[in-house]
Prior knowledge:
2 domains, rod-shaped
Amino acid sequence: MEWIIxxxxxxxxVLVIAVAVVVIVTYNGLVxxxxxxxxxxxxxxxxxxxxxxxxPNLVETVESFASHEKKILQNVAAARSGYLSAxxxxxxxxxxxxxxSTLKSLFVVSENYPDLKANANFLNxxxxxxxxxxxxxxxxxxxxxxVTMYNNKLQMFPGNMIAGMFGFKxxxxxxxEDEARDMPILFDENDLTDEEKERYPQKCPHCxxxxxxxxxxxxxxxxxx
Length: 225
């Protein structure tokens, strides 16, 4: 009889130890994956910071050649202000998307200013901004891969149980479509001058950004023509 009791106790101890090992290994794996997500976004954030740090110099350069393009310059400044005040990753990426769209419009407008197009500082800034955006795109893909792996662990057994016990939360992927859909209204028609209304008479029905004559909206990318 005693050996039966001893066997049951031994079995319970082995089971408890096995469960403890599974919990510890799963928990550590979730922590490791979560830290990888944080680290991968830190790489994006560093490139975002570098990109937005270039903006004051860009605005100053453009103003010296095309000061009356105030609406575009205001939106460049607004994107930087929005980024600096953003506290969560999704908001920062949304500001970067807004900046990318605004810069596209700015570079289109620069075609009307030969002296600006030929300015060495403007060309260098344009190249640096483009290179940084490429790095952000690459880093975002790495981030999305890390998020996918982390979320998979949260959804699969036994990770889903451990995650619930210790408060792990799923992270969101950064999709360009989501950023475009969540972008704020950039222009109010009442804020446009008569000259700007003549130059940019139409607004995008999706984000209300003022169109620059292209087939695609320079702000949200939607096809409007």
